[in-house]
Amino acid sequence: MSAGTDATPPRLRLLSYNVQTGMDTRSYRHYFTQGWKHVLPHPERQRNLDRIAAMLRGFDLVGLQEVDSGSLRSEFVDQVAYLAQRGGFSYWYQQINRKLGNIAQHSNGLLSQINPVAVSDHKLPGLPGRGGLLARFGEHDESCLAVCVLHLALSRRARGKQLAYIAERLKDYPYVVLMGDMNCVGESRELRQVIQALDLQPPGPPIKTFPSWRPQLQLDHILVSRGLRTENLRALDYPLSDHLPIGMDLILPPHSGIASPAPGLDQLR
pLDDT for 148-204, tens place per residue? Predict the structure, then answer.
């Protein structure tokens, strides 16, 4: 990230990626023929994680969905910590949303080159297993940035309740970023409602991210406050999951007070 001056305001490179625990899905039939990879280890998973980590080095803030926090299927590798260390991130945080003993640890993750002031977990309404991870950047209430990583439910009704819950917790922040696998398209009613509630910028042209081998739907989104400038919204050609990653450059106001990345690696919790 560039610290910025009055002439060059600070810029953050954002990425959201549902990594499907490193599973390389290339067709719908793989959901059935390779379904065993959801519970058992496979060497391909670790190779894919290394490829993903190399790609993440170009970003400042990364929201991850469908990462495993250390279980049988990931060979007990904490994938959030692994991607942070291999990707060169100074700070990281994981939110475990569904624990299936030693078989699977379904999680969201946040990787950051800048130190958040605070990070909090939010279990979303509806069936267990969905969560939001909220990080605050910047010391001053009038200029701080709230970044929320989400993985929403498959049901439209549940998504509506989940987004209403998140909107209530973000309503007092001057600048907001919502990023993640929303499991709905930009024209969906529930997404339009949270955009209106938080005064977010409407989605631009659809950036199709699913399925990764033949993208037809934009299920992954990065939504930001109207008071922020954005550039380079795009899907990246990294089909190492069943979703493509989505990236964006965020230009912050000069008075945001967000610090430059600190050297070294330091785990948030």
Answer: 999 999 999 999 999 999 999 999 999 999 999 999 999 999 999 999 999 999 877
Strand 246-251, strand 229-235: pairing: antiparallel
Confidence class for position 77, pLDDT limits 50, 70, 90: confident
pTM of structure = 0.90
Q: Maximum Cα–Cα distance for the chain, whole Å?
A: 55
- Rounded to the nearest 10°, the torsion over CA 39, 42, 46, 49 is -50
The domains found in the chain, sorted by start residue, are 11-256 (3.60.10.10)
- For 251, residues 6+ apart whose C-beta sits below 8 A from its C-beta are 9, 10, 11, 228, 229, 230, 231
Q: Calculate helix-pair angle for 79-87, 43-56, nearest 10 degrees.
A: 40
pLDDT at 60 over 70: yes
